[in-house]
Amino acid sequence: MDAEKADDKEISLPKKRTRRTCLEWFKHYFWQGQELRESEAEAVRLMGEESGEDVPWARRFVVRYRRLIGFAIPAVFFHFFWWSAMIKYNAWHLFVDKYFMSITMIIGSMIAGMTSEGGGAVAFPVMTLAFQISPVTARDFSVLIQSCGMSAASFTILYMKIQCEWRALAISSAGGVLGLIIGLDHFDRMFDPVTKKMGFVTIWFAFASVLLFLIIMRKGRVYNRIQRLNFLKGVVVASAGFIGGVFTALVGNGLDICTFSVLTLLFRVSEKVATPTSVILMAANSAVAVIWRGVMANDLSFEALEFLAVCMPVVVLGAPLGSVLGSHFHRNVLAMLVIVLDTVALVTAFVVIPQTTSLILMSGALVVGGIGLFSIIAYVGRTIHAEDEKNGDAGEVCGDATTTSNSDHDKVKDGDA
Length: 417
Description:
3-stranded mixed β-sheet; 3 strands; disordered C terminus
């Protein structure tokens, strides 16, 4: 008997990895599942495992149709006030000259909801590069439209109970408000429009380059929260928020992608968690920017308000829809969307903006310096992660995309899916 067992063991072959069908590939990358908070994940599991007879009908309805409800509530809210204002002031004529931004923000709003790139990342370069609109107007429009569209997306995220890094959100938000106010009052007048445009696209192209390299090379685990958050890590997150707030003051967008870069590169937080965190961050920071520009400084561009009037009905639909769709994407898909957007923005800037020798040198220096900086951040993050795994403090591996853990160990996911 022992010999037969030994023979069986000798002839056993490793199982071959089966190739995914097109449908399986699509589901893996584009309908992987949502990162939900524990209470909501448990409710979803129960609804799937049981007939639902013991669950109150209201709870059953809310859980089953949470995506549709989370999408519809902010859309109805904003559309009520938009229709009321447009009818009262008879402002339909604005669409005649400004319809092109309504079309632009169909894509821009969905990108804002599903990635760490706010609507301003699309609106600002399109308005300044393609349509030669003043950077001040483009910046004001960006924060105005984000305060509506990304607020609607934030409600959808909160309603669906998508997992976010709440500690990083609070800390970065505080730094972002400070950076925004200082940037609007001091840094904004220090740079000319062309420098703002090229500086924005080149720095974030550098980040995209490093992120692409990490997607190709990265192995190991990613987390749903910053591991063992302490004072030093909090300072790093607050500093990232401050820098992102300054970017927002200059070009109407930046806090989201800046915080996203630190969370993913340094702290190895999953893109599926860092993305909704950055959406809520940018919504709050944009609202502060609108209040500061419109109330404190009384200097909000009137043309930006006109652009807002023709774009609001679009973005309050597109941004929540983007959040619903993006919450199901594989984290590498979310990262690739950021990479593609940043690359397209850089190429467009070089094509549209007349290049001088000094501008080319500045852009090249920012790309090289940015790649160096983000590479250092990624290296430090990898070193910290390796030390944690060496000490056995990496937390629990999670295999379910719809569940979270609130245990003493922070949740992690395999990073080489």
